[in-house]
Amino acid sequence: MLLSNLLKVVMASVISQKITQAQPAMLVQEKGTVTLECTYSTDEPRYSLLWYKQPSSGPMILLIHQDSYNLQNATEGLYSLNFQKTRDFIELVISASQLEDSAVYFCALREPTVRGMMEGGIHKSQGSY
């Protein structure tokens, strides 16, 4: 196996009141499948879970998101989610990984704002997350 065919995937070791990501860094064979786990906690009935990628150089990139009211797992290109709302758990699956996938990955929880609740709940924003 050539070292040039390996990519490094790092989960940010984040433990907060709402999100836990505790997987160690891993080396993955190019074109392999990578599964990253995230658990979360919220009392809100409606929320969004977002996965970001931070390459070693360049800006952080929003890869994919899952809304709590949508029980169908989100898919975006090579990225797919395994959302288990009853377990407060979500996995990011990267299929056919490439060297460009070497990065630090972050899971984020977005809850409604006070303004959003006063206006009747979460509204789909026109901009970025």
From TrEMBL:
InterPro entries: Ig-like_dom, Ig-like_dom_sf, Ig-like_fold, Ig_sub, Ig_V-set, TCR_variable_region. Coiled coil: none annotated. Keywords: Adaptive immunity, Cell membrane, Disulfide bond, Immunity, Immunoglobulin domain, Membrane, Receptor, Signal, T cell receptor. It is found in: Cell membrane. PROSITE patterns: IG_LIKE. It comes from the Eukaryota. This is Ig-like domain-containing protein. It comes from Neovison vison (American mink).
